[in-house]
Inverse folding.
């Protein structure tokens, strides 16, 4: 069964350094796993996310995006850093995902900003968020400041080296778990007893 890596990008511009970082991480991980890559661009869902927060009901487009994320074998989540934390759009998207949907799912966290001063946001904002969601957060987080693009060295090595290390961790985590099940046919009938059994409940008649 093929595996799928999903990039969730909260970049606001086009082209976006946030999307570029997500693409590079996904390509590096896919080389090791052979997984297919899908991308969820949150800027295209901004209105749908806001409406969902107010009404409690997702649009078909947002519902498809949530389904893509929750069924992924591994996630790469990338946000620009605003005011020392993830963007509101990024947080709002994960607020509309049902609790428990990301439990145990391998997640690689990454971020971009204009200056390296924001790099600690990965540790004090993104990592606690996905730990709370009970995801399996990779040890290496990747931050890219403006000066990192094209740089060959730095205190933690160049950006390419960080990407390869983080992608290797994600690839190992994805390869070590069963592939996500295929989407069931919407018309498939599942008897009520079987539905209860899947929840560990024994029916009585």
């Amino acid at each position: 069964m093929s595996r799928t890596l999903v990039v969730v990008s909260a970049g606001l511009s086009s082209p976006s350094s946030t999307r570029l970082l997500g693409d590079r991480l996904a390509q590096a991980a896919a080389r090791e796993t052979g997984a297919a890559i899908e991308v969820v661009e949150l800027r295209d869902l901004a209105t749908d996310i806001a409406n969902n927060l107010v009404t409690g009901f997702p649009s078909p487009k947002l519902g498809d995006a949530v389904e893509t994320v929750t069924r992924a074998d591994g996630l790469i989540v990338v946000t620009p850093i605003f005011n020392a934390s993830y963007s509101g759009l990024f947080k709002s998207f994960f607020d509309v995902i049902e609790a428990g949907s990301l439990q145990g799912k391998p997640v690689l966290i990454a971020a971009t900003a204009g200056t390296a001063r924001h790099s600690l946001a990965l540790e004090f904002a993104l990592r606690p968020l996905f730990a709370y969601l009970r995801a399996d957060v990779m040890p290496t987080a990747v931050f890219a400041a403006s000066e990192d693009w094209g740089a060959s060295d730095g205190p933690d090595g160049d950006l390419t080296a960080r990407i390869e290390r983080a992608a290797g961790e994600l690839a190992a985590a994805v390869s070590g778990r069963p592939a996500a099940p295929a989407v069931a046919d919407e018309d498939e009938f599942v008897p009520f007893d079987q539905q209860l059994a899947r929840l560990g409940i024994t029916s009585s008649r």
